[in-house]
Amino acid sequence: MQFNTRYSLLDSKLFHQQMPAPLIGAKAGHFNAALADELGWSEADKADWVQICSGQKTFAEFPPLAMVYAGHQFGQWAGQLGDGRGLLLAQIIDQHGKTIDLHLKGAGKTPYSRMGDGRAVLRSVIREYLAGHALNALGVPSSNVVGFTTSTQPIQREKIEHGAMMLRSSDCHIRLGHFEWINQYAPKLLPEFTQKCIEWHYPECLEHEQPILAFATKVIQNTAIMIAKWQLVGFAHGVMNTDNLNITGSTLDFGPYGFMERFRPNWINNHSDHSGRYTYQQQPSVAHWNLWVWLNNLIPLAKAEEKDIFKEQLAQCLEHFEPTFLEHYQHGLSQKMGLPHFHKDSFDCAMLFLRILQSEQLDYTQSFLRLQNKQYTELKDDCLDPRQFDDFLTQYENIRMHQDTEQLDLDMKTANPVYILRNYMAQKAIELAENDDFSEVERLFNLLKQPFSKQSDLEKAEDLAPLASDQPEVMVSCSS
Ligand code: AMP
Ligand code: MG
C-alpha cells in the first residue's frame, strides 16, 4: 500500500490519535479481494487481511485516529459527535492515484464514544458490507468495505449479538458536520480546514475567482446527483443526519437503510424515525436542508464588510440543488422507462407509471423489469384498477412510436437492476453467518456484483420475489 498522511497533519484539535482495540478471537468473515487490488494492496497485505480487518495489524506509515465532528440529528443540534467506534486507520493511494480513506469500524472506544461501547455487531457489519458493494455495482457513489471479521465476543444490543469489525473504504470521511464542529468549538480552524477540503477534493475550484463559492456549488451538485441515484434505485439511507453526509456526495454511514420493495414513497425503514423524517420521498428535501445548515457554517469565511453579499451568494449556490437533482432524476427515470428524456411528455408518463406502482403497491424493481421485458399483461393483471394501466400504456406507446426503440430498450437494460439487496436476503445471510456459515454472504456478494445481468446459476427465486401482499416491510433498528 502507498500512504498519504494528509489528515493526520491537520490541527490536532480535529482528531484523537489512538490504536484500535483488536477484536478478540477474530475470524475471517468475507474479503473483497478485487477492491483490495483496486486500492493497491500488495499480496502480503492481502494475506494479512484478517489481521488488518480486526485491528491486530496497523501501519507505521499512518497514525490511526478518531475524527471529531458534530451534527444535526433528526433536525436537532446534537453537539459534539465524532468517531465513537471507528478509526481512520490509514489514507492510501489507489491504483488510479486517488487518496482513499480506510476506516476501521468497531475498533473500540474513543473520546467521542459517549454512551457507546465502541463496537460493531456482525448483523450491521454484513448489512454495510453487502449494501456498499451493491451500491457501487449499481453505479451509486458510495463507501465500500474491503473486508470484515467476526468473533464470538458477545455484544449487548437489543439482544446479545456477535462482535465484528470491518474495514471501510471511502473517498472522504469529512462530513458536513465537520464544519459544524469547527464553527462551534474551534472557529479559528475554519479557513485552513476549508482550504484543505478544496485542495483535496475539489482542486479545480482553486482556479475559480471565488473558490469557496465554487466549492459550495460542487458539494451541492454532487449531493444532488447522489440523491437522484438513490431515488432511481429505490435506496433509502435511513439516517440522513448532517454527520452522515460527506462533502464529496458519496454515500456514507447508512445503518438502518433499505432498498425499497413495494413502491411506498412514505415507507419508514428506520425503526427510530418516528416522524418519518428520513423516508424515501423526503430524501431530496432533507439533503437540501442539510446543505442549508452546512452553508451557514461557511459564512464566517467572508470578511466582515462582505458578509451580507456572501450570504446571498451562498444562497444562490443552493439554488443549484433542485435543477441538478431534477436533471439527473428525470434523465435516469426516462432511461429506466425506455423513454427519450428530451420528449416533453416522458416525465409525466413516468410519473403516471410510479403512481400506478404506488396505488397498486407493486414491487419497484420488478415492475421496471416487467416494463423492460414488455410483460404488459402481467403488469396489468396485478392491478386492481386495470383502466389506469391501459391509460398509461396508451400514453407510453404513443411516446415511443416514432423513436429509436432499439436504442431505448438497450438503455433500459443498463438502468434496471435485476437484483437489489432485499431486506430478507440480507437477513438470511446474517442468520447463517451468525452460525459460522458465510456461504450466503458469498452468494449475495457474487450476485450483487453484476446487478444488471441475469445470473441463473446464482439466483434463488426469493431474490426476485416481491414481498407478499400480506407481509409488512421490515423496519431496521438504528442500534448497530
Ligand atoms: P450513527 O447514527 O451510526 O452515524 O452514529 C452517530 C454517532 O454515534 C457517531 O458519532 C458514532 O461514532 C457513534 N456511535 C454509534 N454507535 C456507537 C457505539 N456502539 N459506540 C460508540 N459510539 C457509537
Ligand atoms: Mg454516523
From TrEMBL:
Binding site for ATP: 82, 84-85, 105, 117-118, 168, 175, 253
Keyword tRNA processing: no
GO molecular function: AMPylase activity; ATP binding; magnesium ion binding; manganese ion binding
Top class in the EC scheme: transferase
InterPro entries, sorted: SelO (IPR003846)
Name of a matching Pfam family: SelO
Cofactor: Mg(2+); Mn(2+)
Reaction catalysis annotation: L-threonyl-[protein] + ATP = 3-O-(5'-adenylyl)-L-threonyl-[protein] + diphosphate; L-histidyl-[protein] + UTP = N(tele)-(5'-uridylyl)-L-histidyl-[protein] + diphosphate; L-seryl-[protein] + UTP = O-(5'-uridylyl)-L-seryl-[protein] + diphosphate; L-tyrosyl-[protein] + UTP = O-(5'-uridylyl)-L-tyrosyl-[protein] + diphosphate
Active-site annotation: 243
Binding site for Mg(2+): 244, 253
Keyword list, A-Z: ATP-binding, Magnesium, Manganese, Metal-binding, Nucleotide-binding, Nucleotidyltransferase, Transferase
Family from the record: Belongs to the SELO family.
Protein name (Swiss-Prot/TrEMBL): Protein nucleotidyltransferase YdiU
Species whose genome carries this gene: Acinetobacter gerneri DSM 14967 = CIP 107464 = MTCC 9824
Gene designation: ydiU
